[in-house]
Batch of 4 targets.
Target 1
Amino acid sequence: MASPQCCANPPSLNPAGGEGKVVDSIGGVKAYVAGAQDSKAAIVLISDVFGFEAPILRKIADKVASSGYFVVVPDLLHGDPYVPEDADRTIQVWLKEHAPIKAFEVAKPVIAALKEQGVSSVGAAGYCWGAKVVAELAKANEIQAAVMSHPSFVTVDDIKEVKCPIAVLGAEIDRTSPPELVKQFEQVLSSNSEIGSFVKIFPGVSHGWAVRYDSDDAAAVKNAEEALKDMTDWFNKNLK
């Protein structure tokens, strides 16, 4: 489930990164926020195992916010992202303390707080580990639209229970969610006429390509920008 690809290309975390700001509490959770707080549509971006201080994730948040959304990147890891250099705490050990189902419970009050401040529609997007959190939110009818990029731990049974429009962006080279699995997701979704869906497998890219890429690699940047556009288009279609 947690393949080495899950932890490849770790970001250099920066607590001060991004054009937005960090707030101490949205629904009891510290978060990076960007965009107009009075927007009626909000996006919750859920990180991979490296957490909410990843510079590319915050850059994505800023770009999504520029489309008119209030974007929240909650610290669902409570300041405890996975550290590959810590040999005593393998990804398996770390996951026992940070199961996505626990993070789902932490995310629910964040969404409730957004609705209390006047937001009428909430979308959620997650990367890798965060995609499983998004799947749980979509199953629980907590959100109005979902996007999962190179998901981890998401099963066909999860997809069968999704209750809102969902986009799945997969990678051709992905041991965690291989194309065969993503195609199974697509079959399940296409057989459900009540739920809008969009499924795409990006050729030639590896797990993590949408949020952990080399900014000096023009092809990698182009693929990541395409994934960002697909995500933003999906939210524009289903939230506005």
Target 2
Amino acid sequence: MATLSPRSVFITGSSSGIGLELVRQLVNLSHRPQHLLASCRDPSSDEARQLQDIAAAHPEVVVVKLDITSDQDIKEAVVTAEQVLGEEGLNLLINNAAILSKVSGVRDVTRDDLVGHFDCNTAGPMMVSKSLLPLLLKAANKSLSHLSCNRAAIINVSSGLSSMSFCIKNMKHPWYSYICSKAALTMATNIMGRELCNDGILVAAVNPGHVKTNMGGSDAPICVEDCVSNLLRTFASFNERSVGLLHSNYGEVIPW
């Protein structure tokens, strides 16, 4: 079985939930990253306290201020990444940050709610990926190995609901803004994957499942520790056959 051992990782939405648990488990890998840039909207907030505690105990963790809907924040985050990573570049970008308002039904959805979700859940990951692309290319060019999360990769944390076939069977709430913005992210993953694979960058999407987090709720069936443990094994398994596809947290391909 392949081992996940990227030299450098950048994660968005790291102050809670899946993002925080990704940081926690990555620093405890046997081949942990030399550099882990963990970003969140407000590193000084109470929500980010656990992230700051991890950073204090692990010098390889750098906490980065990043609201992915802010072009200025993205520019400043890239400067920080360049300073930390230098010519070695970035091996693994995990676009995890997202919002879910739970506005339900066509009678209640608003333009502002739709635009806000598309800005954060679709445009945000795309702009972060675009801005960090030069660093990903540097890492990709350091190796002639096959596509993998150890060489250079963009992983978009999407949703099973972004798949039409999955949504038809499993949708419980008509969350137009969330579902449509995640469907757009999954489509962007497919396009970006086919565009960047020849540059040595793997792009894929994952559905973490219904996870017990602030977003997923306390009644969710999957604990965040198990979710992230499975995700890291899935990341390790990604290769050329994974490009542009949506996967479960166990690595199975979810049909469009």
Target 3
Amino acid sequence: MTLQWAAVAAFLYAEIGLILLFCLPFIPPQRWQKIFSFTVWGKIATFWNKAFLTIIVLLIVLFLDAVREVRKYSSTPAIERSSTNRPGAYEHVQMKLFRSQRNLYISGFSLFFWLVLRRLLSLITQLAKELSIKGVFKTEAESTNEAAKKFMEENEKLKQLLKSYGKEEEHILEAENKKLIEDQEKLKTELKKTSDALSKAQNDVMIMKMQSERLSKEYDRLLKEHSELQGNREKRSTLCAPNPDPQEVSAHGLE
């Protein structure tokens, strides 16, 4: 094997080892993400795309060269011409055909595993990011659940306190309502008594007013009759009385 194909075979074995290493189940993607976040890989990442494209081109060229060699040594006319010229040429052609097929397999698998390795690295980094985001969401969900539980417990405590305060307030309100109802009944009875007394007093006042009016009328009538009687008596006394003797008048005055 030439140095060129020996390097390709070593590259193939390195690819297989890296793929097996990345597929180990006890190394999580977060660990690979931490390893990839080193400063060394950050410096290498600037040349990573160029190196990847260069290796892809080299492997494609080697694969096409191997395909050409296989087609060259697998054709029957070339084998017949070489066998007629030299007696040991057939074994030589078969040996070259074997080497070309081996190089074809090596270059083909190297190209395939190189693409698989690139895709595996991208999937590992993507999975690590998704798991980190999932972990953040999980912690946020757990914190929100704990906060919700605390809020629910506080809500239950507040409900119990409100119920207890509500019962006490209901008892107080019931007692106050009973007291107000009793006061209202007392006020109603007192108001009824006062209204009855007022109506009675009004009736007494009306009766006394009527009596006073009657008395005033009777008094006026009696005064009128008295004045009339007095006038008639004076008239009668003036008409019927004789002229008195002065001596009798003086004696009567002395008496």
Target 4
Amino acid sequence: MIHSISSSVLAICKDAAGVAGNLFAIGLFVSPIPTFRRILRNQSTEQFSGLPYIYALLNCLLCTWYGTPLISSNNILVMTVNSAGAVFQLIYIILFITYAEKGRKVRMLVLLLAVFGLLAIVVAGSLQILDRTMRWIFVGLLSGASLISMFASPLFIINLVIRTKSVEFMPFYLSLSTFLMSTCFFLYGLFNDDVFIYVPNGIGTILGIVQLVLYFFYSRRQRGDSTEPLIVSYG
């Protein structure tokens, strides 16, 4: 009886954390919209890079595959948030390709095809692994490594903030959303006892705290003109 109640409480906590993580992720998914408004207004991608969207798409696709019942159990909310993220990134990439100059357009198309090719290899290869545990470990390592690399990308911004002593390139609400989403999925992974979710998101939570601390420390010193963010990592 006690074990049953305990399991029910854990399940409720896990679902609550997962739903909250999905909601906070929406803030991250829509964060590049100001950038693309500028691109649409100017009919040019200017000096913006499309690579972050390519990396984000690959990360979302790998994590979506990890969240499917074929790979892991009770991770539907991981599948939903990352499939939504993949749709957003694909839209951004299509817009970027549409307004990029010819050379960058071709490079982005090649990279986009490479992402889908790599995903096809991962899906086909993992399905060849008949042992379910080994399949879970194989895809989990790939998705976890991808997620950690995405969470590590703000290290450049953190270094920039420390060097310039300015938070111009680190919007507060973006950093806050990243922290909240990472924390939610860290808890989700703990409640679900899934190391490939709580370890990457635990790292994301720590980096989120660092960003917020730096923001509050340096925002008092200098406030430059707001610069539109290109993209941010999510889990």
